[in-house]
Amino acid sequence: MSHLQATARKPLHSQPWVTAVCALVGVLSVIIGAGIVLLTAALGHCSAFGGSCPGDPGLDWDVFTGVAMGTALAVGAPMFVRRPSRHRFLTSALVALVSGGLVGLVMAA
After folding, report:
1. CA distance 80 to 73
2. What is the per-residue pLDDT across 15-57, written as a single tens digit (0 to 9) for each?
3. Full DSSP string of the chain
4. In angstroms, rounded to a whole number, what is the distance separating the alpha carbons of residues 31 and 24?
5. Are 81 and 26 in contact (CB under 8 A)?
6. Is residue 89 a contact partner of residue 23, using CB atoms and an 8 Å limit?
7. End-to-end CA distance of the chain
């Protein structure tokens, strides 16, 4: 048994390079998600470049989808890569969908 214990490998998530890659993915997803949200909020409206909007646009779906996806990326990916597991995936997906929907509604209204 001692030979097996000596040759047993550590779990992949405990390797230092995996932790560094996960941290990099988390930081990059926050930066990219925040960039998508800011660009969509600033340039996604129909009157962003001097154009005119149709009569009563109501909810601007282009802004909603862009902001919702950017928020979901910025929230969900770092939450999952912190400690990847099935439970964490489901939790981060639910949190990303709810937060993306709420922020998208606020920014598109």
Report:
1. 11
2. 788 888 888 999 999 999 999 999 988 888 776 776 667 766 6
3. -HHHHHHPPPPGGGSHHHHHHHHHHHHHHHHHHHHHHHHHHHH-STTTTS----S---S-HHHHHHHHHHHHHHHHHHHHHHS--HHHHHHHHHHHHHHHHHHHHHHH-
4. 11
5. yes
6. no
7. 65
Return the exposure string of 62-101: e unless at least 16 CB atoms fall within 10 Å of the residue's CB, then b. Answer: ebbebbbbbbbbbbbbbbbbeeeeeeeeeebeeebeebbe
Asked if 66 and 44 touch (Cβ cutoff 8 Å), the reply is yes
Residue with tokens 């909007």: 53
Q: Distance between CA atoms of 51 and 80, rounded to whole angstroms?
A: 40
Indicate if the pLDDT at residue 9 is higher than 80: no
